[in-house]
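Cross-posting from the modeling subforum.

Setting up a comparison between two proteins and wanted a second pair of eyes on the formatting. Protein 1 (sequence, then structure tokens):
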Amino acid sequence: MTLPLMPKATAVWLIDKTALTFTQIAEFCGMHPLEVQAIADGEVAQGIVGYDPVANMQTTLENIRQCEADPNARLKLIANALPMPKRLRGSRYTPVAKRNDRPDAIAFVLRNFPQLSEAQVGKLLGTTKDTIQKVRERTHWNSANIKPRDPIILGLCSQTDLNAAVAQANDRLQREGRTVPVPPPPEADEAA
């Protein structure tokens, strides 16, 4: 069962405004009955403002009244009609500590997956076409220190994202009637 939004604040409101049992509130909010009792005693959640589940369309007043009359009845959470938002793909924040690893990952992807377009590499690693071009042409300011390293190990992308991008690029090459390149075998320093 899914839980209501802000379960502790909802429990505070239900304790203050209803005559529900601790067990009923605990089951609705996904808490232990002793935790609900501690909230009622003022030992826990002292500064939390109550969150009205009726006004926020998480349950109905009729359901609360029915459960107050019957201690064995349970509150029901109303299913949300709004769909859950999808996480949009695209550039994402890269921590400062990993930013110097990005050119290494670009070099690895360019060498091992030449079928990927610059747009795909940029989206996959969260970089710009300008940086990709500089790494490719070896005009990057730090090109002397760039060593191709796997972006998955560096934590810049996931294996599923890389596989999806490669599959998409391979499909594009097949549609265009070109051959799909075979990735080179791993080198000794990469295997270690």
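Protein 2 (same layout):
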Amino acid sequence: MVSALRFVFLGMMLGLFVAGCEKETTINYEATPTFISEDEEFVGVEGKVGFLNGSYTANEPQKTVWHFWGEPDEINGAVRVEGTYLETGEKYPLLLNEHSFKTATWEYNNGFTQPNLGASKTMPSYVGFEKSGLWKVSVYIDSEKFGEFILEVK
């Protein structure tokens, strides 16, 4: 009788342990709120990096101008942009040469252009997202993380 009770007790404990292990943690991501600079709406990190808020559609290259805020002498070097598709965690290059996904690149080293809309420096580029959904956009300047935000792509 005691052995049978131990067996039942161990079975119950094992069942509770397995049930506890099966619990998944789900992270709910939301698009980063927009911000205003000189009466224009941006998506990105206020006071750091962003581009004009617009509609981004999967598999459609879009010309955009990156805006960088900060000390001009600190905004120098190659710009690297990593896109993480949040549904799978896969990383993709988001910068496009000649507005084609075939020429996607991780970095631009084309230099910056003039200040605009309150930003210290700007950089024109094409961007492209291969899938619809939420994307984490990580921006690095001269190998240092400059900003990160979440964007919804239709």
